[in-house]
Specification:
The chain has about 500 residues and is of the alpha+beta class. The chain has helices at about 1-30, 35-50, 55-70, 85-130, 140-150, 180-185, 220-280, 290-320, 330-340, 365-385, 440-450, and strands spanning about 155-160, 165-170, 195-200, 210-215, 330, 350-355, 365, 390-400, 400-410, 455-460, 465-470. The protein folds into four domains: about 1-115, no CATH class; about 135-220, Beta-Lactamase (2-Layer Sandwich), CATH 3.30.450; about 250-320; about 325-480, Histidine kinase-like ATPase, C-terminal domain (Heat Shock Protein 90), CATH 3.30.565.10. The chain is rod-shaped, with a radius of gyration of 45 Å. About 25% of the residues are buried.
Amino acid sequence: MFIQWKILIRQLAWSAIVLIAVTLVCIRVFPVNATTAGLVYLIAILGIASASGLATAVASSLAAMLCFNYFFLPPVGQFTIADPQNWIALAAFLIAALVASRLSSHARSQAREARRRVEESEHLYAFSRAILLAGPDQPLGSHAAQQIAELFNCRAVALFDAKTGETFRGGVEDLPAEDKLKEAVERGVRIGNGQVIVAPVILGGPPIGSLALKGPPFSEDALRAVLNLVAIAFERVRAQEAASAVQAARQSEELKSTLLDAIAHEFKTPLTSIKAASTSMLSNGSLAPQIRELGTIIDEEADRMNSLVTEAVRMSQIEAGKMRLERTAVDVGALLSDVVAQFGPRAEGRELSLTVSPGLPQISADSELVSLAIRQLIDNALKYSPPASPVRVRIDSGPDGVYVHVHDDGPGIPPRDRERVFQKFYRRAGKANVPGSGLGLFIARAIVRTHGGDVWIEETGGGCEFCMSLPLQKEIAEKRGQTTLSPDANR
């Protein structure tokens, strides 16, 4: 208030000096008549009104009217008006002062608003650069709070991250307790008015934080822009954390894959020796029955151990994205015949039939991986079906590929579990005594989906039927670039 009065007194003093100067010039320097003097006073009043406020303009117009009356209107030297028409001079001075002051005030207000918007735009640009160019090792919350305080002349800033519960502060003063910041997040509305504002930080969803400001008032557009930039800063932190987590997970998967590869090679050597020894021993026809039975157990368990090691390595390579397809032209009928033949001893006397439709087309695939996928389906059928029941394998062709069906007479799979059985390590309730690692179906689907096909379970009158689709060679030619095996490929 004192500053405003000081400004008003200074403006009145300058106005008085201008009017005194005009009076002296019109009387002593260049003596003029009343009409000319009135025009000069009018010009002076317009200038004073354009450079000062309304109060100064009105006071100046009254002073100019008195000077004009006293020095130029008859009777000269008296504050009287002999001619009533001279009252027009007073009205002219007063109207001119009011109009000029109003126009000048409006122009100055627009100029101030334009300057304020320019300054806000410059500050917002600087703030956005500070947010986007901040280094990954720099605490973004504290940096944002300090930048807001410095760029927008805020005495205090508090930035609350709803995810972590942290509060970052900037400025030289303190702000209300954190309960106001949390309340703004919970209610999703702005709290406070005047110099202290607490507003939620929202970016296309529920509030992710809140911002408290104490200082000069923000325009609505500037406040909204600051809140959006803060939201972008929060999302950038989230993105950096997610990227770091992904990178750490990728490195972990690669390390796991490397270790499993090394372990697999270490296991393969003794397993190969055990298998060779058991096979050689069983080929001796003079073995005692008890020794032969023990040799058979060793031979079967060596096969099982080899299968478990292979599954673990394949799963690790799938998750790390390190397994690549070696595509060749594959006769699926012949490939399936070889796979079924390998299950002869493991069928334990039950029927394992194969039906191959004539005229099957060739496909472009990795024969080793496709064989592994088919083996997993057949092995799953043998494990989960009754000992005396048959397992039927059928392969036929369609307009877009070849289809492998593996049917068993087991208890079947409820609809709610038909997708879950393809998850890693998933074992259905009541099946814990079935041997296996729970990786076979996961590996089979990942392999087939990488080839452009899929594995699913179909409804049957009884038992369970796993179906596998493998696209024709002409339909997967355009997918040759997608050769890295991934558990979510083509999903």
